[in-house]
Amino acid sequence: MILISFLFICLINQAYGFLKYDSGTVSGFSECTTGYQQTYTINFNGVFANVPKVILGLELIDMGEGADYRIQTQNIQTTSFELFITCVTSTPFHNAKYGWYAIDDQRIQVINNFNMLNPTQQTFPHQNANANFGIVTLTSMGIYQDVNFKLYISSITTTQVTVSIVDTVAWRANLKQVGYQVILGIEEAFADIDVLYHTSDYDSGTLTQYSNKWLFLTYNGLDSYTNLRSRAERQSGTLSYTVVTWYGAFLKNYFLQGWLAYQFTTIFKPFECLTLRISQAYDFDVSTKPDIFLEINELSQSFLASTNIIIDKALSIVNMKIYMKCIKTKKIVSQFLKCQNCSTNKMYQFSHYCHGTINEISYFPRFKLVDSAYKEININIVLNRIKITQVLYNQVQSIETLVDIQIQDV
């Protein structure tokens, strides 16, 4: 019978009664050999407002020599998630134990690469440009003979993350399958992350508690074959743990310990319009110009079509020029973000009429953002409109309009 326990470290939104995070452990899987399949349902300690991200930390492995077990999360709902397990060899998989962590926050990103055959280096896209810190957690494995391997993140950019495998070349073919999750987050998401190489029983000693963070434990790799029984034991009454082998020679291993945030103080904000200049003119060569275009001085770039860009964290001031062709009998309505948190008058708003002496209007907004963060900007240019928005990843993902300029009929 599967054993599920809950750590009642969960934040409740008192106004609505929704979970923001939850955690627990799951173990007690049935013995598994060729053809076995089973789905286990794990219930949350309440209801999330949104489908959360689910993270697994492998804390115990017990399998025979030559076993290949595969596990994955699936059907994640606001009240529960499922673990699906299957085995593909006659050598039995006996048991595993996972700490599970569910979180409803966009400052954490989870990339699943479950049950990868013939494991190699992999590169994955990711969404949040500021989620440029990360860890890897091993979830499953198929080990047929001697192995010595470790998973690690070899590169993170604003758009991609690469996971590599350090292994012994002569034994590479013996690692038939590994599954893992990549956990990405902002800088505040992690603390004291360390991957330790254990060659004998390990005692962490008393650790320093971080507020609003889970103690996260997981295997990152193994260096052995003759024995595949190892566990991390959290010590009751103290903030410490041990890593031991309970049968046979010690299973040498690569083990990650660290702290994973479930609450954040970092709030990402949008650019706000600091100053604005508007120029109206009559250009005899207007017919040779596009109807709409955007220039961003600091990037030395011009934009005639829709696109997405990431502005470097070093840039706190951005100067734009937005050109609009002004056609007689039309008007141009514009708005610029003045203050994100203002209850009223959030936008600067203007209307300009096109007539015989004006056939183009240029806007020169100067935007400012003090925070040192990457800025994800969406530029949407259509026939009669330009809209510039900024994507923000906080507890929820939001889109803030910075500029919206439309050509309208009078």
Query: How many H/I helices?
Result: 0
Name the beta content range: over 45%
How many distinct domains? Answer: 2
| Spatial order of the strands forming the largest sheet | 1-4-9-6-19-20-17
Look at the structure and give the mean pLDDT: 93
Instruction: Assign an overall shape.
Output: elongated
Structural class: mainly beta
How far apart are the first and last residues' alpha carbons, in Å? 72 Å
How many E strands? 32
Low-confidence stretches: 4-15
Oligomer: single chain
Sheet with most strands: 7 strands, antiparallel
Report the helical percentage. under 10%
How big is the Rg?
A: 27 Å
GO molecular function: carbohydrate binding
Domain H-type lectin: 40-103
Signal peptide: 1-17
Keywords: Signal
SSE inventory with pairings:
Blueprint lengths: L2 E5 L4 E2 L4 E2 L1 E7 L9 E7 L9 E11 L4 E7 L5 E8 L5 E11 L4 E10 L4 E4 L7 E11 L3 E10 L3 E8 L7 E11 L4 E9 L3 E2 L9 E12 L4 E6 L6 E4 L7 E10 L10 E10 L10 E5 L4 E3 L3 E5 L5 E9 L4 E8 L9 E7 L6 E9 L6 E8 L2 E9 L3 E13 L1
Antiparallel strand pairs: 1-4, 2-3, 4-9, 5-8, 6-9, 6-19, 7-8, 7-12, 10-15, 11-14, 12-15, 13-14, 13-18, 16-21, 17-20, 18-21, 19-20, 22-29, 23-24, 23-26, 25-30, 26-29, 27-28, 27-32, 30-31, 31-32
